[in-house]
Each structure stands twice: as structure tokens, then as C-alpha cells.
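Re: the 82-residue chain
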Amino acid sequence: MTPAAAGYYGPDGGAAVAATIAMGRLAEPADIASACLFLASPLAAYVTGADLAVHGGGEVPARYLAARPDGKPGEAGGTVLR
């Protein structure tokens, strides 16, 4: 987990969110980097105008997007982690 994500999820380190994800964990930076490498590779030569969902089989519940643990609104109105 990046330091920014650790600050966002607070003291439980995202355990409550991870429990809602099919993979049972939050994404690591390498998970996102792997998707980027795929899209930049010849393997994705025929991929156009598509969304690549890299979310481990789940989406972050809205209650975690609405506000950070410190009570401040989430980024961009709470829709960044989608």
C-alpha cells in the first residue's frame, strides 16, 4: 500500500474495504502497473475505447468514497477510487 492510500484508509489499513473485494485484498501498485504494461504492449494492439477494470473483483463501497477517515471529503467529490 502506498503512503497516500494508508493515510486515506486509516488505522485498519483498509481491512474493511479489502473484506468486500473478491480477491480479499487492496490493489498493490504492481497490480496497476501490470495493467498499464499490458495496455502499452503489442498484446493490446486491438484494444480501443475500452475500460479495463483493475479492482480485484469488487468496487469500493460508496461509504468509503464519500469521506476520508479525517472527515474531509474524498477527492473529486469522492469518486476517485472507482
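DSSP finds four helices and no strands in the chain.
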